[in-house]
Amino acid sequence: MNNTLITIAIPTYNNAQTIASTIESCINQKTDIDYEILIVNNASKDGTDEVIAQYSDNDKIKVINNPETVGLYDNHNLCLEHGSGDYLVYCHSDDILEDNTVETFAKKLAERNYPKKYIVWGHSMFRDFSQKFIKYAGFSYNQVVVGEYAPMAFLYGGLTPSGTCFSRESFFKYGGYIPTTHPQAPSDMTTMIYLAMNGFKFEMINDMVFMREHASTALANGLDTYLGEIDDAYKHFMEHVEKEKVSKLIKLSSGQKNKPYYFYYAIAQAKEHKKQIRTIVLKNIVKEPWILTQPLTYKLLKRLA
C-alpha cells in the first residue's frame, strides 16, 4: 500500500450552494489515518469553483478541474483515476460524511486485512441500501458476500457511490463505472452486478456513515422515465457480459423470494432472454396474483408478449 490509505472523492457539478458543507465534513474527520480529499469539478458554471477556492490552503485537498463537462459516471471514474489512496470513498457534493466515517472504514479494512476487489458501505439517512441488501437479497450485516449469488444484492437497485468505500485500483482496473448513454441511467446498479460477476467482495456494516439531506429518488420523474433510464444501463451492461452469463444470472434470480421485476424488465429488451423471464414471471403471478395490480407488472408483461 502507499502512504495514503483513503481518498475521499467529491465529484461535483453546479453545487455551489451545498459543497462547502460537504468539504467541511470531509476536512473534519476524527481520525489519525492518512487520507486525502479529491475534488473533481465537472466544469461547473454556478460558482462552485469559487467555493472550492476558499479551501486552497488546506494541504489535504487536491482539485481537478475538467476543461469541459463529462457524463455523471465519467466524472466518478476520473475520481478513481486521479485518487492516490488505496481505497476511495465517494461523497457527493450535496451529502455530508459522519465525522467518524474515515475511521469506521479504516477499522473495517484493517479487520479484513486490506482486501483487493472489495466494496464496503454503511447506513445513510435517505436512500439507505439496507432494505435491498438485508430484506430483499437476504444477506446480513458484516457478512462478506462473494461468489455466484453476490449479484443478487444489486438486482433490486443501485448502490449509491456516496458513502461507499471501494478498493480503488481494483475498481479502476475493471474500468470503473460502466459508461451509459442516458445521463441518469443507473450504472450504480449494473456496474455492481458486473463487479460481483467478476469476483468482487461486498459488505454492509451496521454504522451510519453519511447524511443525504438533499435526497432524490430514481422514480422522481415517473415510472416511464425510470424504465427508459434502466433500459439504457442494462443495454450497456449486456454489451459487457456474455449471453450465457446473463442467462445464468436470470436463473439464479428465480430462487429469490422477492423477484427483481425492474431487472427482468430491462433484461427483457433482449429477445433471447424473454422466454426465460416469461416463465419465471408467470409462475410468480400464479403464486402472488396481486402483483398484477402493479403498473410495472403490466409493462413487463406487455414487453414479454
UniProtKB/TrEMBL annotation:
InterPro entries: Glyco_trans_2-like (IPR001173), Glycosyltransf_2 (IPR050834), Nucleotide-diphossugar_trans (IPR029044). Signal peptide: none annotated. It holds the Pfam family Glycos_transf_2. Residues 7-113 form the Glycosyltransferase 2-like domain. It comes from the Bacteria. This is Glycosyltransferase 2-like domain-containing protein. It comes from uncultured Sulfurovum sp.
